[in-house]
Amino acid sequence: MRRFLVLALLFCWNLTPAVASTDRPNVVLFFIDDLGWRDVGFMGSDFFETPHIDRLAQESMRFSSAYSAAPNCAPSRACLMSGQYTPRHGVYTVGDPARGNHRYRKLVPAKNKTVLDDKFITIADTLSQAGYRCASVGKWHLGKSPLSQGFQVNIAGNPTGSPRGGYFSPYKNPQLADGRKGEYLTDRLTDEACEFIKANANTPFFLYLTHYAVHTPLQAKQADVEYFQSKPAGKLHQHATYAAMIKSMDESIGRVLETLKAQQLEQNTIIIFTSDNGGYGPATSMQPLRGSKGMLYEGGIRVPLVVKWPGVTKANSASEEPVINVDLYPTLLEMTGIPQPEEYALDGTSLVHLLKDPQSQLKTRSLFWHFPAYLQKYKGMQQRFRTTPVSVIRQGDWKLLEFFEDGHRELYNTRLDISETMNLTDSHPEKVKELATALHDWQKQVRAAIPSEPNPQYRSGNESND
Predict the structure, then answer these.
(1) Which of 176, 91, 190 is nearest to 142 (CA)?
(2) Nearest to 247 by CA among 224, 229, 230, 226
């Protein structure tokens, strides 16, 4: 009842019935799990094969400085759906914020929410109110079901962040009936997505195809694994099973695009392809970017992004403008001609101006990340954590990281040093002060949780790297 009243109040200002016109564009959002910045051909992979995505990129506008709003799955998805940064919804990380060896955690991390509260007005809520048929196909990870968040259709979505039964049927997924023995999950989700398109060809729809791939467990079809095992390794990428998973994901994109074409919907459908965070470190590389999933360095948050808006975006166009996934909510509203809900904060900026003119720039602004939690290291890492609690601002080419354990800061110029190898805090103290002030002002504005309580289990002076 509370959610109904909230939605009614937010949309009551629109006295005209929110019924989508027949020429309102469809929207297909491909949201791939753990796909790194370099994990597709058009971004330079020398081993993974993504011909369908590469063709889509050639027909679209590419963003080379696109970011997820968080370095791991659930918070990135909460930001995408709500249009808000992590401090507003409180989904800071996946599950327990106190990960890794307790002896090395100096602070008690901020409390973390694992469910996106129904009070947040998702992009699906807004599109549904305008008459769109909304389907979530694949990973949800923000609570029990997307059906309470504006979607009318849920295929395979639940609280879990990885496929419970793995990638082959039986899936052990209450929201997805088992297929034939050995059926591959990525293929099955593609079947479901294509059927949704066919069933809704005569009404505006929003298809959120949120593959579990290429999240662990790393499992792929044997023939594809053998193919990549026989292929010469690249200097950047070499992992055969991961490559095979990417191949199936790419084939999925191709099948969905072909279904749109067969249904004569290709020219009236907006296509967005992106990832929820950086790639899985043990299986891939984001070089020259530093880091991987779970880090606030570029390799953990910079992601591939392409947008195809028929009749608007120019084929094979590109932008270096820094953008972030909270921008997609206001962008889709402007694309579809739907007003923003009143008295609901959207932290992003519409990218429509950029999409119409790739040489243009957005108004000067800052991008923010807030991660008041710990993430354990990957096996083989020298450092004790992938990240400790940290807050980050990017403004223009400058990026400042401020770590809460000891207050130390790192300043990088992302244009001159994309690999973040040169900490410029000593040589640019005024820039540090400027960005730190802006970051602290933002933290106060959004009431960001700042961890400060000492961890009583912390043991200083322990030199072990366990």
Answers:
(1) 91
(2) 224
CATH assignment, 368-446:
3.30.1120.10
Which stretch of DSSP H or E encloses residue 77?
Answer: helix 73-82
Closest CA to 27 of 122, 126, 146, 127: 127
Q: What is the pLDDT of residue 464?
A: 45
Question: Which one-letter DSSP state was computed for residue 42?
Answer: G
What's the pTM?
Answer: 0.94
**CB-count burial class (<10 Å; 0-12, 13-18, 19+) for 186:** buried
| Cα 355 to Cα 360: distance, rounded to the nearest angstrom | 9
pLDDT at 23: 77
Helix ranges (H only) for 271-376 are 298-301, 328-336, 352-356
Domain 24-359 CATH (choose: 3.30.420.40, 3.40.50.300, 3.40.720.10, 3.30.460.80):
3.40.720.10
Q: Is 319 helix (H, G, I), strand (E, B) or coil?
A: strand
pLDDT digits (tens, 9 = 90+) for 218-263: 999 999 999 999 999 999 999 999 999 999 999 999 999 999 999 9
Q: Structural domain boundaries of the chain?
A: 24-359, 368-446
Amino acid 393: pLDDT? 98
Look-up of token digits 């505006």: 204
